[in-house]
Amino acid sequence: MDTNAPVTEAPATETPNRELLDAVRAGLRERTDPVRATGAQAYMKSTLPSLGVRVPEVRRLALAAASVHPVTSAGQLRATVLELWRGSTVREERYAAIDLTSLRLVARDQLMLPVYEEIIRTGAWWDFVDGVSHRIGGLLQAHRPMMTELLVAWSTDQDFWIRRSAITSQLKAKASTDQDLLRAVIEPNLADPEFFIRKAIGWALREYAKTDPEWVHDFVVEKGTRLSPLSRKEALRHLEQGTTAGITGAG
To answer: Which SUPFAM superfamilies would you find in this protein's record (predicted)?
Structure first.
């Protein structure tokens, strides 16, 4: 489920913040929970070991370390994230690398795109991939023409994790959702039997249904049996019964 051989590598053009890296790595190991680590590794079906540190605690630790050892530029932050990601020996180091991308210094910075792509392609599992989905969404909001073209291309990529990222890129967009883009990234994947693609389609539709239930209802009706039962069930999960009663196979 994990790989250490990057398909696409983002360039690290500056020297990483070594103090920050040391603080993150030391802090994680201080919080090791061997019992929880065993269960976490089994749950994630991962060959990458776990320390058993809870995800919220990893986030708090990473951001606190960044406050004590601040990065000096966006380039240094990118280099630090990539160093932590590529040199990770435990899963939590990769979580911390993703958490560091939330710093304002790189908010909606399109130069972070190769970093996110490397995380998606080399992480190749749902926790890592979904960990940067809202970052991709932020880039879409800030750079619509460029990101729209990219996400449409991603929706037909050979790597299904890249395709999943295209589908989930607007999870938090709400009223800013580009309906044409949502349709464009879902349609090429309707026939894909991959669980994580079908789940992503349903997830994206379910979230948008909170904003525009009629659009989602009409989309599900339009696609009919081309939409997998899993995707359909997820898409309609929170719609009123009366709205879904006429949809064949609605779960």
So the answer is: ARM repeat
pLDDT score, position 239: 87
How is residue 97 annotated by DSSP? Answer: H
Say how far apart CA 124 and CA 198 lie, in whole Å.
16
Nearest to 188 by CA among 214, 226, 143: 226
The identity of residue 124, as a single letter, is A
Give me the domains of the chain, ranges plus CATH numbers. 13-106 (1.25.10.90), 125-244 (1.25.10.90)
Q: Are residues 6 and 122 in contact, defined by beta-carbon separation less than 8 angstroms? A: yes
Residue 12 has a pLDDT of: 63
Give the pLDDT confidence score for residue 28 in this predicted structure.
Answer: 98
Taking only the tens place, the pLDDT of each residue in 157-173 is 999 999 999 999 999 99
What is the C-alpha to C-alpha distance for residues 176 and 89, in angstroms, rounded to an integer?
39
Which pLDDT does position 80 carry in this prediction?
A: 98
Q: Are 54 and 95 in contact (CB under 8 A)?
A: no
32 vs 94: CA distance, rounded Å: 15
Mark residue 104 as left, alpha or beta (left: phi above 0; alpha: psi -120 to 50; beta: remaining). Answer: alpha
The Cα 63–Cα 99 span in angstroms is: 7
Could you tell me if 14 and 111 are in contact, meaning their C-beta atoms sit under 8 angstroms apart? Answer: no
Torsion sign across C-alpha atoms 49, 52, 54, 57: negative
Chain centre to alpha carbon of residue 36: 24
Residue 4 has pLDDT above 50, yes or no: no
Give the model's pLDDT for residue 91: 97
The answer for 224, left when phi > 0, alpha when psi is -120 to 50, beta otherwise, is left
